[in-house]
Design brief:
The protein is built from ten helices and eleven strands. A six-stranded parallel β-sheet has the order 2-1-3-4-5-6, sandwiched between helices. About 16% of the residues have low confidence. The longest helix is centred in the C-terminal third of the chain and has 27 residues. Helix 9 packs across helix 10. With 297 residues, it is α/β, with parallel strands linked by helices. Strand 1, helix 1 and strand 2 form a beta-alpha-beta unit.
Length: 297
Amino acid sequence: MTIRPTIAFGPETKRTSWAWVGFDVGRELSKYFNVIFFPKNIKQVPQADLVFFIKNPPDNEVWTNLKHRSIKMVYCPIDNYSEESAIQKHAAFLGQCEAIFVHCSRLSPILKPYCKQVDFIEHYNRFGLSEMTAYKPSGYAVWVGTMENLPPVINWLQEHPLGLEIKFVTDYPVLFKDCITGALPIKDNHELIKWHPKVQNDIMSGAKVAFDIKGSSFNQMHKPPVKAQQFIVSGIPSQPTKKATPQSILWPTDLKYRHRWKWNAGSQLTTGKKLKRLVKHCENGLPLKISDYITSA
């Protein structure tokens, strides 16, 4: 009987990034490996062949214990770093990692000096529509994201109104209302709608267009491109960078071309199908990739 390697994922948190990159990926990999999850603030990670740290890097005590036990480590920073100088604080840990998996390709050259192996890996398609939506000649614009990412969006919309109703699907803290109208200081008619997977699916299904605005901070400039990906896969017209790739994110300056939102969604059909094939390819290749890190010298 073949003994399957054990992979540990952690630390567990309530953030979407953990559910997406930690729990969901771990659950999928449990088809091929023994998978365990460990909580936040743990002092010693259970015995494993490979440990994934998702977003939150471990304390020195934790990673040095793993090093002494000859357990290999992989770090997925996602959007953890608020500024480039913060990376230096974790230099010792990063240097002991078997690999760093980044979700934004622009992070690769920044992290290369700290770790010999930095790989780009896509988020899987968690929130894209199951079927591409039909093009809509009229309707509303949709923005999806957490409240902490709203300030640059509001700042830009104050100077550049879209002339469309906007539905902001977000995690606002008001408990007794699922929808708030006109709460933001912008000119466009809009609603704040409390986020839930089904709510996001329904709102995206009815949207004419989708958009995103990134700020100029280090954190904002190195966000994973998941929104661009989910809009493309869903067939929702959106305005990406001029040199658009699945790895690109959306920029404020390019929204001056918003007249292009009149394009028929069919122009994005090929891109969406290619991206779906890419996701499927990544899924098929992932178990072998993980095995490479476990067995590497």
